[in-house]
Amino acid sequence: MSDQTNVLSTEELGKINAYWRACNYLSAGMIYLKGNPLLREKLKAEHIKNRLLGHWGSDPGQSFIWVHMNRLIKKYDLNAIFISGPGHGAPATLANSYLEGYYSEVYPDKSCDEVGMLKFFKQFSFPGGIGSHCTSETPGSIHEGGELGYSLSHAYGAVFDSPDLIATCVVGDGEAETGPLATAWHSNKFLNPIVDGAVLPILHLNGYKIANPSILSRISHQELEYLFLGYGYQPYFVEGHEPELMHQKMAHTMEQCITEIKRIQKEARDSKKAVRPKWPMIVLRSPKGWTGPKQIDGKKVEDFWRAHQVPISNVTKSPKHLEAVEEWFKSYKPEELFDESGALIAELKELAPTGDRRMSANPHANGGKLRKPLLMPRFQDYAVKVEKNAHEYISPTHVLGTFLKDVVKKNLHNFRVFGPDETASNKLDAIYEASGKTWLADKLPEDEDGGNLSCDGRVMEMLSEHTLQGWFEGYVLTGRHGFFSTYESFVHVIDSMFNQHAKWLASCREIKWRAPISSINLLITSLVWRQDHNGFTHQDPGFLDVVANKSPDVVRVYMPPDANCLLSVADHCLKSVNYFNVIVSDKQDHLTFLDMESAIAHCTKGIGIWDWVSNDQGVEPDVVIACAGDVPTMEAVAAVQILNQKIPDLKIRFINVVDLYRLMNDREHPHGLRDSDFDSLFTMDKPVIFNFHSYSSLIHKLTYSRKNHSNIHVRGYKEKGSINTPLELLIINGVDRFNLCIDVIDRVPHLQRTAAHVKEWLKQQILESVTYAHTEGIDRDDIRGWKWEGKQQ
Amino acid sequence: MSDQTNVLSTEELGKINAYWRACNYLSAGMIYLKGNPLLREKLKAEHIKNRLLGHWGSDPGQSFIWVHMNRLIKKYDLNAIFISGPGHGAPATLANSYLEGYYSEVYPDKSCDEVGMLKFFKQFSFPGGIGSHCTSETPGSIHEGGELGYSLSHAYGAVFDSPDLIATCVVGDGEAETGPLATAWHSNKFLNPIVDGAVLPILHLNGYKIANPSILSRISHQELEYLFLGYGYQPYFVEGHEPELMHQKMAHTMEQCITEIKRIQKEARDSKKAVRPKWPMIVLRSPKGWTGPKQIDGKKVEDFWRAHQVPISNVTKSPKHLEAVEEWFKSYKPEELFDESGALIAELKELAPTGDRRMSANPHANGGKLRKPLLMPRFQDYAVKVEKNAHEYISPTHVLGTFLKDVVKKNLHNFRVFGPDETASNKLDAIYEASGKTWLADKLPEDEDGGNLSCDGRVMEMLSEHTLQGWFEGYVLTGRHGFFSTYESFVHVIDSMFNQHAKWLASCREIKWRAPISSINLLITSLVWRQDHNGFTHQDPGFLDVVANKSPDVVRVYMPPDANCLLSVADHCLKSVNYFNVIVSDKQDHLTFLDMESAIAHCTKGIGIWDWVSNDQGVEPDVVIACAGDVPTMEAVAAVQILNQKIPDLKIRFINVVDLYRLMNDREHPHGLRDSDFDSLFTMDKPVIFNFHSYSSLIHKLTYSRKNHSNIHVRGYKEKGSINTPLELLIINGVDRFNLCIDVIDRVPHLQRTAAHVKEWLKQQILESVTYAHTEGIDRDDIRGWKWEGKQQ
């Protein structure tokens, strides 16, 4: 076998280096130039952009990886994508995409000639143009490069169930310091060499972040080697700065790694034994801003933090700097790289793969192209039988689990379920009948006892919401489907990932060449109202406020009140594309309010009057009682029962909301109700008591522009809670049946006077309930067994 | 030296094991018992709690660590605290705190006798009582144990600048899978053996999470060893299940580690050379639910996931289970451990340290006790001179940096500054004149060139917001002060940490024995309105919505409009206690609106009319223009200038808000304005155009109950942005001067008719601005140079 110094012939070496020079030239060009793109005339101030933006530092290193991957894609006909962790170095991805011709295919005005190149340069980091990091506009990218930390989990998500795919994942040494990245290395314990593809992580020891050395570049070689051995990888080191030598080393090492990946996969696939191997990874230590200016004004630039962004500034005003830029650009010899028209010369062009093998054009990086809709079982077949409304209890998520089990069965290798050690705790364990939990780490005999561990499981569990969300995103971005369940209070751990994915989806709406991808379906469970036993720290229903800040075009929030509604909502979400669907539903046993037929009708409308709870038929109601969420709905129904008994003349209209955005105006959200429809539901002037699952301000935000808004009184979580019983927790936040009745009495004219004795009775109930809870540790009458005794549908 | 089998004499071994039995007995007791605490009569169903809650699994292992630490505290007079990463195992911390007597000191009714023990048992996970994880109510704890992942960063934060302190940090193997924990191991690159104390991390390989094996317990011994060598530690392994042997191993190993820590510290302190050593850490592999029931109903419990929470359930109804509980409890022989009164026998009591040396009573774990107020320079001395209002530009954070520099100087080893690789980028680099950045990883000669690296820096930079926030929390919870600056768009990374710390502070208000601690001071900078160049993904001002969901008692939000106001606000925040202060201020050059004297007056009020921008003196205004935030304030002032020119008769009142909670009602927030004061500022019926930094709904939320609310029209970030110029970004979100003027024209009666030509002119300005931006890449008239030409103060 070749060694590290002669794997490339002189000719091949020359060509590869020339191709790399072209990458670097383009990377630098897009940062600086708005004219004279090929330097065919002397560089003048007028050719330089008015505002210099972009990140040069990691570009040459990233392009170095890309061109060497190209060689192997061609040699072995590999199916590979590129994930750029140091995503601010978008020029590398952009340059390669342009050189491969795919950029011009999707953006024809950025043609492969001088005119196109100029447009390609000018748009970069330019108003109305594209960003300086890998955004959704970047062909070949599934990884938003603005926020750091998720490249590796995205890469693993991309290769799950794509046995032929290799994700070349460049991990920046800055990014490597983030928590999400630091734990994502353990993804190798969840990768099956038979059914999954492979990730080739390349830690790019670029040396510096914005202003500091990176930690991993400043520990000993031995520590670094131990760290990756400890993470379960076989690290290979490529270190240096002399291009020719580095090309030889890199060619040798990457080939070694690809060969090793193929050997591992073949061995596992031939033997049908999926064991965890030592997957290869590469540590590439190369100078920051490699091939860029060595120094400027006597200060070190290359291989230093000064090379991070724009290495030479003040170019239009300083002739010396302008000259330095020209000298630097000319060092790439563009005249040797591009032909008369401005296109890459044919001799170099043939170094890149063609068609779908180009990493810029690989359909996995535009996953909607590969997406096959889920084969869906009839969700109605999993319905809970309802003899009487609001009489029987069942765990909604348990019922959902029976449905998801069959979704798994029908869609093996196209659908995965994600959850942080909580799938069973969240009562979705029926899924295990269809498939176990992926586990490639060591096993023990006792795992047979209910462990449900499997080398090819469809359930992904790791105690890292970051990694799970990253895997899930990578999985859907490459054309598959999934479902994530997580504890409500700690879903804030991935607030920032939610923001970024929602922004990705929102910006994709403007990009015609991106095919629709499956929605992210996020079930939030273990809800605040059943965190009475875990207490204050486990009570936070505020994720919805983060969600509601994002574009209405891409976010959906559903609060199915019971198991049948949850089935209907989940079915809808699993079939949808390009959304971030948030479903809020608790795991404990809860009342089933509606039979399946009614549930479908109700969920299809998203909001509606429940006639069987209302008694305003044929007359104007005195009060509207509205609700959203399972427990708040139960308490609202229970409040109506009390009011019916104690104040039988009171005319009540009862409204339940499943699709939260129905509350919004149709001008502001595609699901919004027209004003006239809202008015006919909520009246123009009657008091509305709204019992809400989350913080009350969200309902005000959504209903802000409605005519009757000033009469809407919202109850929700008030950040009150310690160790309580279920009823006590509701009481201290005012969302319980008794306080709701008091709200009605306080707001319906005359009731304050005529129902004063009822109010006294209600207060007494509250007092006694709390006293009992503190004495016995449980509810007096366990509210988790309460039933509706009123009329039926 | 002793070896692993004989470090403890038989007598000492017996005592230590007996003390440990007492811990385990108490841990189990608090999960199960509401009567018969010492098992002095036969166990009956009526002694068992009605609802069984709590986590048994990690308790014995954690107590095992605690009792062995006790031995060394006594032997070497160590100053140590205990941080419980697997925080749901609070029974271990609680049991030890009770045995040491400190629990009874702070909660006298939980006395060291049978009556007190019963109360101690019953309150656990009981309505009105305490939680099942380490909450603020737990003496000896600074670490909320509900959400996992922050134990190690808290531990490091605690020992920074406390050279004698040792933080015994138990890291759960579940928690170890989280991202924040996985990167926190690198904290050792920031620990100085001379000025800082030491962390002794103990990875507790308990084997299982709720339902799954933990990853680190299922990789090879060699991989585990490599991993911690790679992280830069020297791992020591204590593995087994036989108590006597394990006691010997643990006593030997912990002593080895403590000796090693002392050697490292002595060497560094004697030589005055701070280098990064291989700090010791321990891997403790012990059975989950150790010493608990081996099996129940024929199913494996000890050393399995079934031991995670309540190992034997259904106790009141199953006599067999009741019997199993009794057998298990009696295995600890409580009659040998507690005397007639129910107190721990004297022979065992003497095993624990006394006074402040008890880990439950160590004042570092109640940091307010040690807290010394900062020595503050006069912030007025750093004021920007203002000849004319709104005429000169300066970076507010740069000015703040000059002030913080002297705060650092005056408070060396009592104050630290935190930032993710961004202190310089955030323009706070003046601080480096006082102190560099802590860095104990390797250095290179080139670091002398502006690197500002120091082994004893006051500035903490790592590309992990999680680790920084964890350090900061640990630092203030142990009695010190700090300041954290971070990018606005990515502060969502620590949403969940914010939530937990805010909840910690809120619950501490009810705990008399906890002394006040310094506030967390979080500067959010690199704000949305100057992320025109980074684009959409870098634009998210929504952290404030997360903040506003938390208890008004503990959160504060300040939006100083300029440098002088920022100084005043920062001074106020640095002196405060028990808050989470959020300061929103951009790093770019911005207008200075107020001289120092006016700034102080304005910030003291928190909200106020700016007379020099208003022209309604002596008359009712036609419109109120209000604003909060630096750029929105500039645009609002610029809008007034346009309106004054174009519609000179229009009477405008101009209001600026610094303290966001002034907008709230005084009944809802301690900073809230009384209704009468709000009405006199905002009028009862005039249109209010409010230009807001963040999403507009927050202003509606805060002003919801105000009389003039329906006339308040808020402009804010609308989730619109790509690559823009500063002005274009404002325009597409409607917060720019031109759109504000249009808002005024649209809302002031008659102006729609009389000022139609002005509106046309404004629309033309907008169109031309955007066209210019897309052509030239910069603003037409760079708004970053705009000046107020109106009257002066």
TrEMBL record, chains A, B:
Keyword Metal-binding: no
InterPro entries: Phosphoketolase, THDP-binding, Transketo_C/PFOR_II, Xul5P/Fru6P_PKetolase, Xul5P/Fru6P_PKetolase_C, Xul5P/Fru6P_PKetolase_CS, Xul5P/Fru6P_PKetolase_N, Xul5P/Fru6P_PKetolase_ThDP_BS
Residue intervals of the Xylulose 5-phosphate/Fructose 6-phosphate phosphoketolase C-terminal domain: 587-788
Highest taxon listed in the record's lineage: Eukaryota
Span of domain Xylulose 5-phosphate/Fructose 6-phosphate phosphoketolase N-terminal: 9-369
Keyword line: Lyase, Thiamine pyrophosphate
Cofactor annotation: thiamine diphosphate
Keyword Ribonucleoprotein part of the UniProt annotation: no
Pfam families reported for this sequence: XFP, XFP_C, XFP_N
CDD domains, per database record: TPP_PK
Molecular function terms from GO: aldehyde-lyase activity
GO biological process, alphabetically ordered: carbohydrate metabolic process
Similarity-based family: Belongs to the XFP family.
HAMAP family: Phosphoketolase
UniProt-recorded name of the protein: Fructose-6-phosphate phosphoketolase
